[in-house]
Amino acid sequence: MIYDKAKLLSEVARRRGFFWSSFEIYGGMSGFLDLGPLGVGLKRLITDSWRSLFLHPHGFVEVSTPIITPYKLLEASGHVENFKDPITECTQCHRRFRADHLVKEQTGTETEGLSLEQLGELMRSKGVKCPECGGVLGAPQYFMTMFKTSVGPFGEDPAYGRPEAAQGIFVNFRRISEVMRERFPLGVAQVGTVLRNEISPRQGPIRLREFTIMDFELFFNPEEPECPFLSEAQEEILSIVTAKTREQGKEEVTKVRVSQAIREEVISTPWMAYFMSLSKQFLASLGISEAHQRFFEKLPSERAHYSAQTFDHEIQLDRYGWVEVAGFAYRSDYDLRRHMEATGTDMRIFHQFDKPVERTVVVVKPRPDKIRGAFGGNTGKILALLASRDLPSLIHSAQKSKMVKIEQYEVPLDFFDVHSDKVKEAGSRFIPHVVEPSFGVERLVYAALEYGLQMKEDRLILSLPFRLAPVQVSVLPLVNRDELQERATAIFTMLLRHGFRAEYDEAGSIGRRYARADEAGVPIGVTVDYDTLKDGSVTLRDRDSWAQVRAPVDSLAATIGKIVSEGFPKSRSSTLYSG
Amino acid sequence: MIYDKAKLLSEVARRRGFFWSSFEIYGGMSGFLDLGPLGVGLKRLITDSWRSLFLHPHGFVEVSTPIITPYKLLEASGHVENFKDPITECTQCHRRFRADHLVKEQTGTETEGLSLEQLGELMRSKGVKCPECGGVLGAPQYFMTMFKTSVGPFGEDPAYGRPEAAQGIFVNFRRISEVMRERFPLGVAQVGTVLRNEISPRQGPIRLREFTIMDFELFFNPEEPECPFLSEAQEEILSIVTAKTREQGKEEVTKVRVSQAIREEVISTPWMAYFMSLSKQFLASLGISEAHQRFFEKLPSERAHYSAQTFDHEIQLDRYGWVEVAGFAYRSDYDLRRHMEATGTDMRIFHQFDKPVERTVVVVKPRPDKIRGAFGGNTGKILALLASRDLPSLIHSAQKSKMVKIEQYEVPLDFFDVHSDKVKEAGSRFIPHVVEPSFGVERLVYAALEYGLQMKEDRLILSLPFRLAPVQVSVLPLVNRDELQERATAIFTMLLRHGFRAEYDEAGSIGRRYARADEAGVPIGVTVDYDTLKDGSVTLRDRDSWAQVRAPVDSLAATIGKIVSEGFPKSRSSTLYSG
What we know:
The structure is a homodimer of 579-residue chains. Chain A is α+β, with helices and mostly antiparallel strands and 579 residues long. The first copy, chain A, has four domains: 5-83 and 145-336 and 434-442, Bira Bifunctional Protein, Domain 2 (BirA Bifunctional Protein, domain 2); 84-144, Herpes Virus-1 (2-Layer Sandwich); 351-428, no CATH class; 471-566, Rossmann fold (3-Layer(aba) Sandwich), CATH 3.40.50. Chain A has a nine-stranded mixed beta sheet. In chain A, strands 25-24-26-27-28 form a five-stranded mixed beta sheet, with helices on both faces. In chain A, strand 27 and strand 28 form a beta hairpin. Chain A is built from 20 helices and 28 strands. At the A-B interface, helix 1, strand 2, helix 2, strand 3 and strand 4 of A face helix 1, strand 2, helix 2, strand 3 and strand 4 of B.
């Protein structure tokens, strides 16, 4: 790459209104990003495209829950204890940094999952220094990275900004499951803002303190882990850096077919494999080719507190190298179980057997008459104690001594009636397991832009696919005369009515407007000139090749449709091109 | 109304998955709302419908900025000083309430804009008591209703959750205006989360601490206040409770044509009148008829600190009475001016005159020679003092005394050279004025649901318009047999491909599924039975009339399209109905 894409991109993004740093006129605050008109458009198209791939065809649903979240909920979910990062302060300039990031940047060592002591030792032994002033860094310590606030007039309810949207789904699982008539497996998504009080983020749009997440929880029965959609994906080939490879100190990619990955337990559950293949497709649809994608498995020490297996979906970015844009976590029943324990809400799902199953159960009953004979006035107390225990196991472990010990009492085995019973069970209850694909939307916006950025004859072109272009057609009067402006405005309105994302632009020379539209990623320009008034034809211009054709206004919408499906006609034809 | 719509609605909303209170399993936290799958869908359709009415046809744009906002920005905007509510604490049970709400509820007196003293006096004189225990209430005091947090590892940057999305637009005005090539007037919107730490909110979905706002700022030149779109709206009739009427202690509605409202200055600026007429149309499209809408003008004492004229767009709700769903504020140049003053950023727009304008300016120059002759060593000081003043006005006001007084010095008029000069000016710079329509989205969701709720033979029907229905078509196999399920799934997929919001439902008897679809607001049911396998026809069922017709699967999409535009055919026909 002979030009600095990240720098070019940030300039174009600012100039054309995709994104820029927040609060610029107040001196800025790092980790916050504004989206301009085109950024808002692109972001919405990306989230909608994700919905149409992950949700709609499967009948999966979406919910929306608050950002502000009570302390006790995030305590139960383990975030209060685990959502923290190691921080180090320079003893000289007193700036603060992520200790693990500095170690990784300055020594190349993977640092996720290291303890404070290990990090501190690495910093000393490898001579990690302050990146700002070269000063000696202090010992690392933990810092909780949730934003704290409180609710109510006197701060009576401590709360945090949610660091993930997933918890809003877990705590509502009971209700959502009822609304969905206990349909199972059940997929529930949430697209929304999350807040993470990152320590001195220094990577522009890549590391944000406030961003949009697309969290998606797939609930399934661990006894029936099959994914019914897998047949469509099993031939897909995934590029994985496995934990095994990484444990050997290597970062090589293993190419593995989805079916094989499941068979050989490279991926622990079929739903996860299915979503990984969807994700690969999704990123490809944003313009990120396969060669620049990989799945990077986390080592057990690196995984989040709730996860039994994690893959990061990474892509290559020009300045930042391999960057995570999605995470795939096998959260097992961790979250539902924690919320069940904290609140007593039954989160289990009833699973009806195909036909009732007969089971043999051991039934144990204490004999009050015999107990009273031996223990007299203590009988009531002993019976109460026995009632609170699992009698079959008590009896089972008393086979040797022939005595059931309960507190200070020893009750002989023959004071109990023990017999087997056959019972019919219609089904059983289980806590669902969860596979979670989770995407960071701003990183996807950034990636789609970087992969669309091209140079052509010293000029920048943003080659977004037609489907993703925030503005698809720019309508341009050749010069600013009333009759051309009126005609162009009418064409603009007509295109809007046909459902195209159109804009009308009359500011500046036609050459400058073409150049601007190229940078804004507008695939097609429609120029209205004096011939338009005479013969009802306009010029269509292709963003990527700069080729031009004339086409009649009457069938303009159809012509654009044809160009989208067949591509722009190669050369300028003397006859009219028409859909 | 013989049934309690608010209660019925909250039950249906919960049962069908529109909305419910947040954090239920953790005991709840008032002022927070979850949206279920249908609620998320309805909310998105409402916001999109707003965009297609307010933004797209005018070429107006949308941006997105952070929720977390630095202290200094909200200090400059006046929120730190003004965003507060009067609170009172019960001396007996120590619960806390909005003092103004209690006074209004218990005495019927309008309270907006009253001082703490006036509120306290009303509470005493009218005997306002604690609504929970009847105890005596303490003196009201102010409480700041923004959520406080801080950014960075040691809380170095104090910040608040934004109480409105508008500020993100104002602080970016310079940049957005550049991106939009200084096009003017300029409309910029933001749809996003806002946070308000309301004191003990007790009105369910109507008063939320976290909600979605659609803020829209229209920037215009105060010298050219005309709205070019007004011609489409000037015949519209608005129902307004004017400030004048209210000052006479009445609440009567005045019906006034938009053109007349502008002419007679009932509405202070044409853009505001235009947006009010759009808003009326918008609410009507959500099913809220004109008779249940009114514009309620705020008295000067009731207006927000930034507003020169405010109308609330109110609608009638069953339990809550007249409720504001939108506010129209004429923010003048208040916000841009405050941010200019706080940051020194030039927010002015250059307005080019049609042709350069020649102006006569008075040029005044002190004559150092004469001043030195009279004032000697003080000459330098006097010249410096004069340089810092507006000399033409000084000279003008000295015409009588013939002396220019500056501090202790008196300088004779003839110590100045005064002459007129002609200068050509190509244009002038001005700070744009702002008209803001602002909608609360959750209230619109609630209102659309309440206005759609109907009873039919003891059963609930949610008569949402087809355009607003989160699910438009429900595909139902008559019974759960493989061949029917397969056919129904294929029809479901086909409808999705045609762009309908479809669902597939096989849970329970067909009667129960119809009832459920009626409550969920699904306009059309498509039932697949054994005849479908034989002759390729399905039953279409109308939610509102429960009428049914048979129609061929082959042209199903077209048939549904026809029903949407022409209505459901009146009676069951023996022949196939087809688009």
